[in-house]
Amino acid sequence: MADYRSNFDPKKAAEDRKQEMKDITDRLEQGVSEIFQSKKYQQFLDTMAKFPQYSLNNNLLIMMQKPDATLCQSYTGWKQMGRFVKKGEKGIRILAPAPYKMEREQDKLDEKGKAVLDKDGEPVKETVQINITAFKPVSTFDLSQTDGEPLPTIGASELTGSVEGYATLFEAIKESSPVPIGFEDIKGGAKGYFHTEENRIAIQEGMSEVQNVKTAIHEMAHAKLHNMEAQKAREDGGQTRSSKEVEAESVAYTVCQHFGIDTSDYSFAYVAGWSQGKEMPELKESLNTIRTAASELITAIDEKAQELIAEKEQAPQTVEETRKPEISFYVAECSEFHSMGEFHEKLTLEQAVEIYKQIPADRMNGIKAIGFNLQDENILANEFDLVTGGRLQQQDLKELVPQLAEHPLVQKAFEDVQKLMPELKPEQEKDKEAEKKDPKKQSVRKKLKDEKAAEKPKKTRTAKSKKKEEER
User: Fold this and answer.
1) Of the residues 159, 273, 291, 363, which has the fewest C-beta atoms closer than 10 A?
2) Rounded CA gap, 198 and 105, in Å?
């Protein structure tokens, strides 16, 4: 077998790596200088929104080499995720930590930090091992450069697809904020502000939920970076207003971009003017401040949002169990056979009474009726007539289905229908009138009523008891 490493020159490899590091460093310096042009600055923020965990330098390197990258991993990392890098794809070169240890001779110190001297008064030397922080160029590959197993959905796309999504995101933002967030009527047209003395954020009332999100994140950036303690700790005595706004707006744009919030109204044309006259270390410090703040906010909001989503996924069952009972009404031209003649359902009681009165009594399809449909999971029998042929059915319901008759919504329905139809008479009076007119007919009617009562179950079944029976 041929030895493919026979031509390997360690010295040349080290020189090549050193030269690549120099090239990368030079590109980074040039990139920082050019980035403050409006379009490139926004492109840089877009990259940071996709890679909040990456360093400032690596975000710059990814942006310069593959600005459309969405998710980067090493060759091995993709392999572990069930994907492989396509043949011929060129890696995106970034910097990876390469710490190493080395021995160094130094003066030996005593417990008080003073040099230990020998008998001649000379400092005693000792060899110690120290950790050196270094970096090396490595290749990473974007998702578009790979094939293989589909990736699970990640990120916060589910948070922004609906009003409920925005509400969840805003709740996560409030809980992740370093200071309390509230709404008020702000005079002067401002959308929000961070009160440095009271350490709170105010947002203008009446704005859209999307605008609430944008404003909250912008003011959170101020609260995180520009609070009184942070400004006092600065060597320059505090930042200018324009510097604070550049940082806050940049952080807000990056976080909003990460969560898929519309960022079309953001503009960074003023960044070029703000950056003029500033030295490279100062510019890099500002960029790193923005990157760190955005990354921390994204991480905090992401974690809190996932907690809220997990809670909501468990909520439907609880909501179902505690759903309030509801009642609706129907009108039937024939109370015995609803399919005969007119039938209207899902009505309010007022609508039902109006339709009932409009149905002529001489159609001969049957005796018209107003009935109710009760939605309550604790009661299986949920439908009954309120009024049949001008006669109130309350007493019949009490005798046949007492549990249904005792329901508060049903009792209220009987009370309301008597107010809407004062011409209705209590059932006892109707029975007496019918008996006076035709005693024989009433006795038959009473007999049928007694037979129905005898047939009724001793215990009214509920939805839960029915479920238990089915399980048996």
Assistant:
1) 273
2) 53
